[in-house]
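Let's do one together. I've listed all components of the complex below, 682 residues spread over four lines.
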Amino acid sequence: MARAKIQDVARLAGVSLSTVSAVLNNKNVVREATRLRVLEAIERLHYRPDHYARNLARRSLRVIGVIVSNLQNPFFAETAQVIENEAERLGYAVSLAVTNFSPQRLRAAVQQMLGARISGLAIMTSERDEMAFDMAAQSGVRCVYLDVGKPGPASTNIRVDLRGGMMAAVKHLIDIGHRDLLFVRNAPIQSGPLLLSHRYRDQGFAAAVKACGIPNLQTHIIDVPGLGAPAGEEAISRALGRFPFTAVIAVSDIVALGVYLGLQQRGVRIPQEVSVVGFDNTNFSRFLNPPLTTVDIPRDKLSRLVIEALTLPISSRVPRSVRLGTHLVVRASTASPARRS
Amino acid sequence: MARAKIQDVARLAGVSLSTVSAVLNNKNVVREATRLRVLEAIERLHYRPDHYARNLARRSLRVIGVIVSNLQNPFFAETAQVIENEAERLGYAVSLAVTNFSPQRLRAAVQQMLGARISGLAIMTSERDEMAFDMAAQSGVRCVYLDVGKPGPASTNIRVDLRGGMMAAVKHLIDIGHRDLLFVRNAPIQSGPLLLSHRYRDQGFAAAVKACGIPNLQTHIIDVPGLGAPAGEEAISRALGRFPFTAVIAVSDIVALGVYLGLQQRGVRIPQEVSVVGFDNTNFSRFLNPPLTTVDIPRDKLSRLVIEALTLPISSRVPRSVRLGTHLVVRASTASPARRS
DNA sequence: CTGAAAGCGCTTACAG
DNA sequence: CTGAAAGCGCTTACAG
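Okay, and this is what the predicted structure of the assembly comes out as:
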């Protein structure tokens, strides 16, 4: 049995196409009795308006595209969900794509979204792709980028203060007496360049180290390929014994998770022997043992900024750049280093 | 400047519509020189084929719909991502919707997906909605349900052996000597009925308790409204002191996270004083301190079953029901209870 | 390979 | 409210 179309509904209900269409689109021009007759016909025929025909015929779509790198990292999952909820409230549908950190998939997702005539596009990825950004910028569609991306008349860059967050983390550790810091980073894609978001964290680390001007400060940076937690574990297994450190800063909470396991498996107590700081304040961080000190990137504010920029009236100029503050959430994973005995 | 259409490309390249269309769809009938000319025109005009016009004109779409309850719970996020990767490999696009545990949103998502002429629909939610299931079943579209859902000629129910998993968990605890068990459940929606997935876990718990036939076994069940980890924390704060228990089974890993915090904040050591078992084997569970004993629901196998059922040739009969085994992963969060002194 | 044409299933003025 | 008609931007036979 073929799908019912609007004609079938009109015939069964004994009304015109226009009337069925009016009912479907909740226009208040149809008498109640007629409306009910149409609804009944829809019900009996299991009619569902064809999405493509509908959107092809419509003028404006009220769809927002959201592209994230990965759903396994709670930071992306939370961000996507909060944006989705916010958009829904304003009557926008959300189309979500996942790139798995692949620039090719990012490009394909942007193309697909532009073809879907989205009214706004949020690119919330860690990876970047020039072609994808060019396509987005040239389309004239409103875009929001997360720290990466292309300036343009229709695009807003949300500059998350990653440097400031990282500086706060370093400063906190120095303040409580640490002098040997280990910075653990990971590269989610084997061959790719360092993610820009990681680079900002790097810069913050370097800047903080410099700004503090502590003469006897020792810092080590360890880079591990791979995704998330396992990379953190690997980093610890490589660092322990090779050089001394009393505190670890992980480039993300997910990596911090691996750092925890790496330390605890080897009997190193947190924070008595080694302090740990994460980055992102993902939802699990306060449930770790000990609860993780981490840099918060406020998701609710982020999603509001995204939605605001993407749903601005057509005529208005979009802000080129907005700044999103971050702040350190101090929990029990950091403490003064044990005195050398 | 209006969006370019296929006509504009044809004109600029000096070819016919059909030729541009052939290039867009990678048909091997266009001379290389012509193809390049078309691609250049596309480039210059920033042309992106309209998604809706395209799909309206096409016969088959190769799109799979996936509906999940929530992205904050890693179980759903991981499942969605694995299905997406698998589908992509087979040349299917994936449309993802999130319900936030709302039956209304589930219904809307199903309607929307049916209107999008998906070739298959995976409903991977905890909540259920009769109307949504009816609509899906009557549409004739291939459906896969996760434990909930409606039998029908085109639908496959993946029966995750939650009961078996729960029995294994209970049996493990009893085997190592526990006699006072606390079962912590949560209801993500305030008013809604108990989730079916939770009900199976309940049944498993009851069945295991019965099957073990231990005379002096004490069990307590505590129900907490709310989502995820905070519910687990709340449960512990209510249970501690009110009744004795040496082991906790949490209805999900996320809830177990809250149980950990609840116990550890009150100085109760895991597993020395209280053992904890989770459910789902989400990616963070092995990184907890101590690593969490939990019931594994194999995501890769699950996604393969989903994709298989949804991409079966049109003519073939779909299996009504397939079974997905679960197994207990024993880690350091469970141990024999301390002897009463 | 090309070109003209039909058709996909809706929405939207517009005249009644 | 109704009905006939145009149009959304593609794909797909089909005759050349």
